[in-house]
């Protein structure tokens, strides 16, 4: 079954093979055992996704390697045109692919369609970055140039939280820098990415973009495959560690976008409405399932009660429900494993002396993985909800008296992806930001960088950067060429 409209039809109840994998410009059935895809709003399987075997992967690698010489020989302008054509096709198919994304991921339909459209905008913007070679030095003796050349075949592995955006950013970076790519979506959310493969099969030259789905074994085969030159992985710290170990055997270049436990520090002079709106927008976007979402809030004692009330009031107004319902603002947690983790964290909160659930805390009974937006106070810094990355709609708010103490507490984590500071005093905000141990720090907002801004974290939150000129060049090998002056 290859038609996207048919894939999302209401009558789809018998788990048909949802689509095919893309190898060498052809849509083919994977030879592995198909994988059930669960609708998180019901907890029931609604489709089967194809699974690639090791032989299928070998075929994809062979196709990518065969396509590489011709693709890398094309001019940047030609490669940009192909990426822009892919972006245009995404916009054309945004609604049906967005509906498929809602079915497998759970997010509200408007958010899912918006993800497709934003992906189109972002990949176009990425190809407008200047990746020209650089003149390091030219003097009476010699001319020294730094040149950047594509690596070859990229293996892109994407997670289930923002599957389309993250997949397409990897595709655009690989293609524009002259590489070919083999893309593996999460087994929890493979269908929308596979549908994109079908949509662009007549646009991307054969072998330049290959999309294969499967389970964890497929990911391990990709990271260890000798025919793949770079891995771009987005996912958990635990899996990222295994990716790095697996890729080391063939000295692959590796970029890892991993988890976060992002703190927000609210200074005494912060604008209450601006801050509360920004905190809630970040913390509960995509049901809290964003690596750079705010996951801990530190509030000065003088503002604490007012901030808690303002945030709780806004969180309580968020309507939770199936992504297909028109009034839903927040969908379910994407999968049962993550749902049970968040339920366990909530259970521990309820057993912690002094902790209080200000709003939310309700785990919906029946089908689906729904938890209402939840605000928690009174937790110590070593509570699991504060110490771990919850990746769900439960937000702890902590009190502080001294800003330097708040900085130290915010930094006391193995994570270092993002952080934010909220204040009317921008000079002080910049000072505090400079002390945060994070790869990305914002003042008076959290998230929302342009494509020209490198993305990545410190400590356990990442390895290398994506996007921006620095991230794009991680898909290329630096070559220094020295020529004597005649």
Write up this protein.
By secondary structure, the chain is an alpha/beta fold. The protein has two domains: 275 residues, 3-Layer(aba) Sandwich (Aldehyde Dehydrogenase, Chain A, domain 1), CATH 3.40.605.10; 189 residues, 3-Layer(aba) Sandwich (Aldehyde Dehydrogenase, Chain A, domain 2). The chain is built from 16 helices and 20 strands. A seven-stranded mixed β-sheet has the order 14-15-16-13-12-17-18, with helices on both faces. Strands 9-8-7-10-11-19 form a six-stranded mixed β-sheet, with helices on both faces. Strands 5-6-20 form a three-stranded antiparallel β-sheet, with no helix packed on it. α3 packs antiparallel against α5.
In a nutshell, what does this entry contain?
The protein has 486 residues and is an alpha/beta fold.
Measured as a percent range, the helix fraction is: 25-40%
Radius of gyration: 23 Å
Number of helices: 16
**CATH hierarchy class name of the largest domain:** Alpha Beta
Helix/strand-derived class? alpha/beta
Uncertain segments are 1-17
CATH topology term of the largest domain: Aldehyde Dehydrogenase, Chain A, domain 1
- Beta content comes to 15-25%
Mean pLDDT: 95
* Ends distance: 64 Å
For the secondary structure, the number of strands is 20
Side-by-side strand order of the widest sheet: 14-15-16-13-12-17-18
CATH level 4 superfamily of the largest domain? Aldehyde Dehydrogenase, Chain A, domain 1
CATH arch. level architecture of the largest domain: 3-Layer(aba) Sandwich
Shape from CA axes? globular
Task: Describe the sheet with the most strands.
Answer: 7 strands, mixed
Q: How many domains comprise the coordinates?
A: 2
């Amino acid at each position: 079954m290859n038609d996207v409209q048919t894939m999302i039809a209401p009558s789809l109840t018998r788990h048909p093979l949802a689509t095919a994998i893309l190898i060498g410009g052809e849509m083919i059935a994977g030879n592995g055992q198909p994988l059930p895809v669960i609708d998180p709003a019901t907890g029931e399987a609604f489709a089967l996704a194809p699974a690639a075997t090791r032989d299928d992967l070998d075929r994809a690698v062979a196709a990518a390697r065969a396509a590489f010489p011709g693709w890398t020989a094309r001019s940047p302008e030609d490669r940009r045109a192909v990426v822009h054509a892919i972006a245009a096709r995404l916009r054309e198919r945004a609604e049906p692919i967005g509906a498929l994304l809602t079915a497998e991921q759970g997010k509200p339909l408007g958010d899912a369609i918006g993800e497709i459209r934003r992906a189109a905008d972002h990949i176009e913007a990425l190809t407008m970055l200047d990746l020209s070679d650089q003149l390091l030095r030219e003097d009476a003796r010699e001319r020294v140039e730094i040149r950047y050349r594509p690596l070859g075949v990229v293996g892109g592995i994407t997670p289930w939280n923002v599957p389309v955006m993250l997949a397409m950013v990897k595709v655009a970076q690989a293609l524009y820098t002259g590489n070919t790519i083999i893309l593996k979506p999460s087994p929890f959310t493979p269908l929308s990415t596979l549908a994109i493969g079908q949509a662009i099969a007549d646009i991307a030259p054969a072998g330049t973009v290959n999309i294969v789905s499967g389970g964890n074994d497929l990911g391990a085969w990709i990271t260890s495959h000798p025919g793949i030159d770079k891995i771009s992985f987005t996912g958990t710290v635990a899996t990222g560690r295994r990716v790095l170990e697996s890729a080391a055997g063939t000295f692959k270049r590796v970029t890892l976008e991993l988890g976060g436990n992002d703190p927000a520090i609210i200074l005494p002079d912060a604008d209450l409405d601006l801050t509360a709106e920004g905190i809630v927008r970040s913390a509960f976007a995509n049901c809290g399932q964003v690596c750079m979402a705010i996951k801990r809030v530190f509030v000065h004692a003088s503002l604490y009660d007012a901030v808690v009330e303002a945030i709780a009031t806004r969180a309580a107004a968020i309507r939770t429900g199936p992504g297909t319902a028109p009034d839903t603002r927040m969908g379910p947690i994407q999968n049962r494993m993550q749902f049970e983790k968040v339920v366990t964290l909530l259970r521990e909160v309820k057993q912690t002396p002094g902790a209080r659930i200000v709003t939310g805390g309700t785990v919906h009974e029946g089908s689906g993985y729904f938890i209402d937006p939840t605000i928690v106070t009174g937790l110590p810094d070593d509570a699991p909800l504060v110490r771990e990355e919850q990746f769900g709609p439960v937000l702890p708010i902590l009190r502080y008296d001294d800003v330097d103490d708040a900085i130290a507490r915010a930094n006391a984590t193995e994570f270092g992806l993002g952080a934010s500071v909220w204040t009317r005093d921008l000079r002080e905000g910049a000072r505090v930001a400079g002390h945060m141990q994070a790869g990305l720090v914002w003042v008076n907002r959290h998230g929302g960088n342009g494509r020209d801004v490198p993305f990545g974290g410190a400590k356990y939150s990442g390895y290398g950067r994506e996007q921006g000129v620095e991230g794009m060049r991680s898909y290329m090998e630096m070559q220094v060429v020295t020529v004597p002056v005649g």
